[in-house]
Design goal:
7-stranded mixed sheet, binds flavin-adenine dinucleotide, FAD-bd, flavoprotein, oxidoreductase, FAD/NAD(P)-binding domain, alpha/beta, D-Amino Acid Oxidase, Chain A, domain 2, 6-stranded mixed sheet, monooxygenase activity, FAD
């Protein structure tokens, strides 16, 4: 029996992958109910290949919005790099999809038998003996299991017990995410992800469903600061005032209840994700800054490779095979993403940065994206 701890994107995708391959599992989630998180998520082709295998790709395409083109621009929206991803569509049969996180969660939840998801079960600690593992929860209950899959996110309690020296790193950046209604938006914003880079600031936009837009705004900041809900919209508008007018338009159209703030952290890459019968996956093992839009996608890839390793390998070898398959790709993404965030927030040399980005052959950028989009 596998016990998955955490019902985020990773835990739920892992549960569905276990369902598909007939692997025995139970999922424990600390929340009393799985409620909507008010943000969008980009699902790139590596994530969508897994969802295609799990037979939920059509639902995702139906609820989300295709992203056929990725454009990096200056703050006034003059392009630095533009990638119309027809080659990706040709290779995989689909583009990336942007979707409301709640819609994705819902699609996953509908396919997982309810009795296998145990809500209001906050993992507290584990104890290992000969062959079994005991799981203890904050409500005082305990269960016996064979294996623990730690999918409990970046602040993973399992990671803290398994690898007490592991560390998370603050990137020095904080991010607001918003969703707003936007009818009759011009064609140039349809089916497209645009990220604008200004001086120490970034702003990204993409459609996530019919007449709904998702945006994110990133600034350099100390961590753990709180917003004043009465003034945050005007503060954001002032901060991004020099950007293309659509930025303030979107902020203006967003209800304050649809704006969430997150400090951007990652997990300092670890040499090992497992020990004995306990294995970390998803953000618990390798949270990355979101600058490449790959954090969730990497957790989704984990679910696929872990489930297949369990199906094919001898039990003692599963976590080793899984880690070997995943760790190099993930570590590279963590590193590059952190670097991208730093370049995107340069205080000086903005013109030089633009000059260099334009000078790099677009074939090089495209090659990198194609490598990331390859499953595994
Ligand atoms: C600003 C921002 C934008 C992003 N944009 C993208 C994007 O566009 N594309 C992309 O692919 N990725 C993106 N990501 C990354 C993505 O959101 C994460 O990689 C992904 O959500 C991680 O999923 P997870 O299931 O591993 O962790 P989580 O989503 O954190 O889920 C962990 C789950 O475990 C539960 N849990 C925690 N502790 C316990 C406990 N003790 N007991 C039981 N349950 C517990 C939690 O309640 C939660 O449900 C973004 C991240 C951020 C911060």
């Amino acid at each position: 029996m596998y016990s998955i701890i955490g019902g985020g994107i990773c835990g739920l995708t892992t549960a569905l992958a276990f369902e598909k391959l007939g692997i025995e599992y139970k999922l424990y989630e600390k929340a009393e109910e799985l409620i909507p998180v008010g943000a969008g998520i980009l699902l790139p082709p590596n994530a969508l290949q897994v969802y295609d295998w799990l037979e939920i790709l059509e639902d995702i395409k139906q609820k989300g919005s295709e992203m056929r083109r990725i454009t990096l621009t200056k703050s006034d929206m003059s392009p630095l790099f533009d990638y119309i991803q027809d080659d990706i569509k040709e290779k995989y049969g689909f583009y990336s999809v942007s979707i409301h996180r709640w819609e994705l969660q819902n699609i996953l939840l509908q396919k997982i038998p309810k009795h296998k998801i145990h809500l209001n079960k906050s993992f507290a600690s584990y104890k290992t003996s000969e062959k079994k593992v005991e799981l203890f929860f904050h409500d005082g209950s305990k269960v016996e299991t064979d294996y623990i899959i730690g999918a409990d996110g970046i602040h993973s309690r399992i990671r803290k017990q398994l690898f007490p020296k592991s560390k998370i790193r603050y990137s020095g950046q904080t991010c607001w995410r918003g969703i707003c209604d936007y009818k009759n938006i011009s064609n140039e914003y349809q089916y497209r992800g645009i990220e604008m880079w200004g001086k120490e600031l970034r702003f990204g936009i993409t459609k996530i469903e019919k007449d709904k837009f998702y945006w994110f705004a990133v600034i350099k900041s100390k961590s753990n600061l709180k917003d004043n809900l009465l003034t945050i919209k005007s503060e954001l508008s002032d901060t991004f005032n020099d950007f293309h007018p659509i930025v303030n338009h979107l902020i203006d159209k967003t209800s304050i209840t649809n704006i969430i703030r997150s400090d951007l952290y990652d997990v300092n890459p670890m040499p090992n994700w497992y020990r004995g019968n306990i294995c970390l996956i998803g953000d618990a093992a390798h949270a990355t800054t979101p600058n490449m839009g790959q954090g969730g996608a990497q957790t989704i890839e984990d679910a696929y490779f872990l489930a297949n390793a369990i199906k094919r390998e001898q039990p003692d070898n599963v976590f080793n095979v899984f880690q070997k398959k995943r760790i190099n790709k993930v570590n590279q993404i963590v590193k590059q993403s952190l670097m991208m965030g730093k370049i995107g927030h340069l205080k000086y040399f903005e013109s030089l940065r633009s000059f260099i980005i334009k000078a790099i052959p677009s074939s090089l950028f495209k090659l990198r994206w194609r490598t990331v989009y390859k499953l595994g």
